[in-house]
Amino acid sequence: MKNEGIEGTERFESPDKGRGLRAVRHFAVGELVFACPAYSFVLTVNERGAHCEHCFTRREDLFKCGKCKQAYYCNVDCQRGDWPMHKLECVAMCAYGENWCPSETVRLVARIIMKQRVTTERTPSERLLLLREFEAHLDKMDSEKEEMNQADLAALHHFYSRHISDLPNEQALTELFAQVNCNGFTIEDEELSHLGSAVFPDVALMNHSCSPNVIVTYKGTMAEVRAVKEINPGDEIFNSYIDLLYPTEDRKERLLDSYFFTCQCTECTTKSKDKAKMEIRKLSSPPKQEEIQSMVHYAKNVIEEFRRAKHYKNILFLELLEMCELSQEKMGGIFADTNVYMLHMMYQAMGVCLYMQDWDGAMSYGEKIVQPYSVHYPAYSLNVASMYLKLGRLYLGLEKKTQGVKALKKALAIMEVAHGKDHHYVAEVKREIEEQQ
């Protein structure tokens, strides 16, 4: 495939940011800027049986691979389409049985290696940026990241060396893992549940802003980039790399740690939303600055502690819920309910309630979260849409029809812009609303 570019856009050198993507025509809010098929992708293990391994379609009548009995497909066409990649894992899973446990990143890298071997020219995913042009930032990696990279490299050799002949040398693999960690994408559904991982080279060309003018959504294994602000000819096209709920310092820290740059976007220089995001509870005796700083420190620690606890094998969900409730009680002595650290733990508590099928508990948390989310996040945020969607579906399940339809309509208004009016997720939500009327 020749380098034909992407209509309406161009690759350019962005001041202080390196290469980037720029509009050469006007894009209206909700308009598709471009679509990009995945160069390589992998369905997460937890979604096997619920989604097709090849096209990521969610359906109940999937059939399983006759050999490994673990991969599921819509039909023979999907199975055949996936075989060049699945055969790697099929043989390995049969050989290792229950001991087969490479990380999602390792699985994705194995597929990229196989794809590169059979690809001799530019792919439809690389109209503006080649995968081999990805930044690796090896010189900026700390010892912890280097250790993680080495662990992934060892796992690749352990699980795949028998099934991929002549793996690239250590230096090439180290660089490839670093490139994927910096430029990979998480594919999510309409409720932001994790479906898998992929690389979309042309999407990775876009630089970051905490006030983005486009949003990335997924249609199966295709990434779609839509305008969420008016974009004029000459404007740089900005995506967001991170969750935008948090205050400026937290976002900068995350971007520096994961993507190795200091954000200088308008939102980071003006800090216009920080006061609302860090709202302090109105008390007769206002807390001192040191007390606030101490509580921020506690909040960051408890968020990290909870993140780790979720991965412990023997932890009970009631313990996780208790951790959420205790931290909210402590933080609530200083922080308002709309403070983003309070909202973070409420969101985690809602997730635990949903898992435990405590629908009333989940609804109660969702009601506290949704309005502050609408204030803290930019317009047409998927985080806000998914919260209205979860809440709407909870209301309908609890036979609160009027509230359910109202919440679903709010989700739909965002989704029609972010996902596009022809997306199957939009059709599903419309169908849910119509069934109630």
From TrEMBL:
Keywords: Chromatin regulator, Cytoplasm, Metal-binding, Methyltransferase, Nucleus, S-adenosyl-L-methionine, Transcription, Transcription regulation, Transferase, Zinc, Zinc-finger. GO terms for cellular component: cytosol; nucleus. Pfam families: SET (PF00856), zf-MYND (PF01753). One of its GO terms (molecular function) is histone H3K4 trimethyltransferase activity. Gene3D superfamilies: 1.10.220.160, 1.25.40.970, 6.10.140.2220, SET domain, Tetratricopeptide repeat domain. Its EC number is 2.1.1.354. Residues 52-90 form the MYND-type domain. Residues 7-242 form the SET domain. SMART domains: SET. InterPro entries: H3K4_H4K5_MeTrfase (IPR050869), SET_dom (IPR001214), SET_dom_sf (IPR046341), TPR-like_helical_dom_sf (IPR011990), Znf_MYND (IPR002893). It catalyses: L-lysyl(4)-[histone H3] + 3 S-adenosyl-L-methionine = N(6),N(6),N(6)-trimethyl-L-lysyl(4)-[histone H3] + 3 S-adenosyl-L-homocysteine + 3 H(+); L-lysyl-[protein] + S-adenosyl-L-methionine = N(6)-methyl-L-lysyl-[protein] + S-adenosyl-L-homocysteine + H(+). GO terms for biological process: heart contraction; methylation. It is found in: Cytoplasm, Cytosol; Nucleus. Transmembrane segments: none annotated. The keyword Metal-binding applies. The keyword Membrane does not apply. It is an enzyme of class 2 (transferase). Protein-lysine N-methyltransferase that methylates both histones and non-histone proteins, including p53/TP53 and RB1. Specifically trimethylates histone H3 'Lys-4' (H3K4me3) in vivo. The activity requires interaction with HSP90alpha. Shows even higher methyltransferase activity on p53/TP53. Monomethylates 'Lys-370' of p53/TP53, leading to decreased DNA-binding activity and subsequent transcriptional regulation activity of p53/TP53. Monomethylates RB1 at 'Lys-860'. This is [histone H3]-lysine(4) N-trimethyltransferase.
